Amino acid sequence: MTPETREWVEKAEGDHAVAGREFRVKKSPSFDAVCFHAQQCAEKFLKARLCEASAEFPKTHDLARLLTVLLPIEPAWELLRPAAETLTDYAVRFRYPGATADRRLAREALEYCTMIRERVRVSLGLAMPPTRRRTHRAASGANQRRPRPTRR
Hints:
By secondary structure, the protein is mostly helical.
C-alpha cells in the first residue's frame, strides 16, 4: 500500500472512531456530528481505494461521483450507490441551521459508512480492526459476572 493510501485510511479511521464515539455518548450526543463524520469516513475510504489504484479523482464530497470513478476498478460496488447517495447529503445538511439529525439517521449513517469501510479495507487487503459492539444484554448489565458465593 502506498504511503498516500495509508494516510487516507488513517484519516478515514479517525472519522469512523469519532462518529462511533459520538453515537455512543449518553449525555447530549451530537447526531449531526455522527452523520458528518460518517460521510467523511466513507469519502476518505473511497479516495483511499482510488489512490491505491492510481486513479485520478475530483476534489468532491459527492460519494456517488467518486463511486462512479471507482466502478471500472470495483464493478460490484454499484450496490453501494444508495449508501453513497445518502451519505453525500450529510457532508453539509446538518452543519447549518435548518436541519437536525436524530438517532435513527445517525445509526443509518454509521451503518452505511461501515459498509463502505469494510469493502475498501477488504479490497486493500487490510484486516478489519476489532469493533466495539454493545448488545442489549451488555448494555443492561446482563452479561456482567456476578460474584460467586464463598464456601466456608
